[in-house]
Design brief:
The protein is mostly beta strands. The protein has a domain at 84-213: Sandwich (Immunoglobulin-like). Helix content is 11%, strand content 33%. It is built from two helices and twelve strands, in the order αββββββββββββα. The chain has helices spanning 3-21, 212-217; strands spanning 41-42, 48-49, 84-85, 91-99, 104-111, 117-127, 135-137, 147-149, 154-160, 169-179, 189-198, 204-206. The strands form three sheets. Strands 3, 6, 8, 10 and 11 form a five-stranded mixed sheet that branches. A five-stranded mixed sheet has the order 4-5-9-12-7. The chain has a two-stranded antiparallel sheet with strand order 1-2. Strand 1 (41-42) and strand 2 form a beta hairpin. It starts with a helix and ends with a helix. The relative contact order is 0.17.
């Protein structure tokens, strides 16, 4: 073999060794396109641990508070809560002869106001210049069930003076006030009752009723 040929073979071998000793190509260099992505961290148990998300938590956002409910309106829902007892300032009064034999009179009151009122219990009746008042006859409803009078409505009561037994007196007028279950001062309402005989033991008056027939039949 010629000296020139031997020299060429030796040069080729040296070049091959030089290429083998070089590092990774440019594609494999750090930061190059060929760089593999970072692998997830492996826990001691062998499972991969996910990288915490960088998205901020919404727990810090202000919470919506419930809208407070409105307080109930003042006042009662009961339609009768502001209906007060009738007084002589609220009504007109008349007395008409119903039965001469027993000196029975029909008493009538009418609500002359603009608001309803309640006719409580029995009327309070006095006889002219005689002392005392008519005896209550029959039971009366309680204040919650007392007769309600709308403006213009009337209530009735039956007044009996009693048969002439020679023990009583004759009067020509009576006066009426209303039961208000209070200390309200009232102006008595008067009515003419010519020849009304008042027996000291048999005179009486019924509770207020919503019709004349019941008032005279009790």
């Amino acid at each position: 073999m010629s000296t020139v040929r031997k020299a060429a073979i030796a040069l080729a071998a040296v070049s091959a060794l030089a290429l083998t000793a070089c590092g990774p190509t440019e594609d494999g260099a750090a930061g190059g396109p060929g760089t593999p992505s970072a692998s997830p961290t492996v826990s001691p148990s062998g499972s991969a641990t996910a990288t915490p998300s960088a998205t901020p938590s919404k727990s810090g956002a202000p919470k919506k508070t419930a809208t407070p409910t409105k307080p109930p309106k003042s006042g009662s829902t009961d339609p009768d809560y502001d209906v007060f007892p009738c007084s002589t300032f609220d009504v007109t009064f008349t007395a008409s002869l119903a039965e001469p034999t027993t000196s029975s009179y029909l008493l009538k009151i009418t609500n002359k106001g603009t608001k309803a009122c309640r006719a409580l219990g029995h009327p309070i009746v006095t006889f002219g210049d005689l002392d005392g008042q008519a005896t209550e006859r029959g039971a009366a409803p309680g204040i919650e069930d007392a007769l309600r009078l709308e403006p213009g409505q009337s209530a009735y009561a039956g007044l009996m003076g009693g048969a002439n037994d020679g023990k009583g007196k004759t009067v020509n007028s009576i006066a009426l006030t209303m039961n208000t279950e209070s200390d309200l001062a009232q102006t008595p309402l008067k009515a003419s009752t010519p020849g009304f005989y008042v027996s000291p033991t048999k005179n009486s008056v019924t509770a207020w009723m919503n019709n004349a027939e019941d008032a005279l039949s009790l």
